[in-house]
Amino acid sequence: MKEVLIVDGDKCTGCRICELICSMEKQGEYNPRKSYIKVMRNREMDFNIIALDIKCDFCDECAEWCPTKALRFVSWEEAAIIRKKNKAGIFPAPLLGRV
After folding, report:
1. Which residue ranges make up each domain of the chain?
2. How far is CA 35 from CA 17, 48, 53, 87, 99, in A?
3. Does domain 4-96 have CATH number 3.30.70?
């Protein structure tokens, strides 16, 4: 079972297609405010941070439509291995109570 969103921050361009796809899939309309995934920009560090709402059911649509393949869902075990082995730019996306 895939339960963790892995984000490659070096690949994320901040296009926010994931937000549009999620809102259409889950809410039936293209409205980023209704998306379960959020792209937040850290301008000082020139970096995008991706977070999931706890309502996310890990359908994988956001990752499937990501044009740069910056997103992917994996199991908890694989996420732990990835986090241990990889550089700081690749990380599990935080889950937020409400985004």
Report:
1. 4-96
2. 11, 17, 8, 28, 9
3. yes
pTM, full prediction: 0.78
Whether residue 66 contacts residue 53, with contact meaning beta carbons closer than 8 Å, is answered with no
Question: For residues 99 and 92, what is the distance between their CA atoms, to the nearest angstrom?
Answer: 16
- For the chain, helix, strand, coil in percent to 5 are 30, 25, 45
Confirm if 58 and 3 have CB atoms less than 8 A apart. Answer: yes
**In the numeric block, which tokens belong to residue 9?**
């921050």
Residue 12 — pLDDT band, cuts 50, 70, 90?
very high
- DSSP of 21-66: HHHHHHHSS--GGG-SEEEEEETTTTEEEEEEETT-----HHHHH-
